[in-house]
Design brief:
This protein is of the alpha+beta class. It has helices at about 25-35, 55-75, 100-120, 165-180, 180-190, 200-205, 220-230, 230-245, 255-265, 270-280, 290-310, 320-330, 335-355, 360-375, 380-410, 415-430, 440-450, and strands at about 75-80, 90-95, 125, 135-140, 140-145, 150-155, 215, 285. It is globular and about 85 Å long.
Length: about 450
Amino acid sequence: MVYFQISPIGFDCRKDKNNCEKYPDFCLECVKAQLEKFGLNLDYNLKFTIIDSEEKRIQMFRDLIWQKFLDVLNIKYILLMAKESGLALIDYPISGAGVNTELLTGFIQANIAFSESSNTSNGNANHGNNHQFYEFQYKTFNILLKNGQFIRICLVLDNKASDSLKILVTDFLSKYESRYLNKIEAHIRKGIMHFEDTIDYITDTFNVKLVFPMILTHTLLPDELDLIQKNPIQKAIMDFAELLLVSKSFFFIINLIDEVQKIVRIDANKILYEVYQLIEKKIIIPTTIETAEDTISKFQESRAVRIASNELISSIISNDDAINELKEKVKHMSEEEVKSSIFSFIRKAEAAEKGLAYKEAQEEYEMALYLASGFDYKEEVGRISFMILDLDKKIKELELEYALKIGEKAEKKKDYVKAINYYQQGLKILYDAQELYESRIKKLKKKIANLQKNL
């Protein structure tokens, strides 16, 4: 048997408190009775809180996410060590440059030995409720350390640990030892070091993704875009994220919050709450600096190779004399003239894009990219590449919307051949970003299969 402790549970009773005779005196008994129908054992560890409005519920989540963010911002290093030997099993820096883990583990061992031998908590160790924490200073950092049965966890912090972080550490240690008991026992018996594949679990538990570099999805569904447009905070977040991506291939949440707050006077926790919703929807995507830079590098390299081999990027300008004319001009242009031309092409492209003249915008961007690649202006290549990716995304969204609308109209008129044809066009567009559209692809394939039965 496996017993699951689920905490906290949120339960919507779906009753109007103004019309409920049991509110608020008998809410606990009523909720327990309803939950017990699902086979939930509520005899122990039940914490009951009434949140009697949507505003309070959202505020609770805002506060919770904000505290998670503050806690992970405080963490510089996460270190897991074997309890007996003191050997480092996981050495994971978040922003802990300059921490020598060998010296740190020695320092920790000495402090624990001293604390245990003196059997006192004179500021070096903090005891309470049978949950022992060691807290001490190391150089300019605060150290939070806790022992489990087999391992100990050490957090290197900027400031003292919050109560919520201590609770998280206690919960993590118990779950980690249970989850990876086989690995721990293999290390104790044979000295096997195989813990790298547990890092994802550690980063998930401590919400490290909130301080990861962020990128934006290259594919945004029309209905998702519509919802963002209707949410002024999310719209501001997306606008500023795109601005930050002009100069770099990634951004950080803390910088994004700062930029939004400069224009929109709103509490940081409200902004973070909306950012978190966009992360959950995979519109803002946590990544690593290496991955973000590698992605743009590969994109740049692919385009540069094709330009160098005279394989033109865009089919739109492949037969255009303009690119050939530019090739001749560039032979006699100074560096200043090249930079001026790049700026001019970008400005024309942005104007065309605003006017929904996407083909013209694509031509101008490609010309700018041709110059930037030829003169190895890496920052400009990166910036223009993202502009082209964003434009490609808009074009695909329009093509998808058009294909589905025509397909739906044809289906209503029982012109099944035409409907299937356009739905298949939409399917091809969805397959370009299959990982984002799996459920939608399945629905569209099912629709096509049903229509084919009518033929």
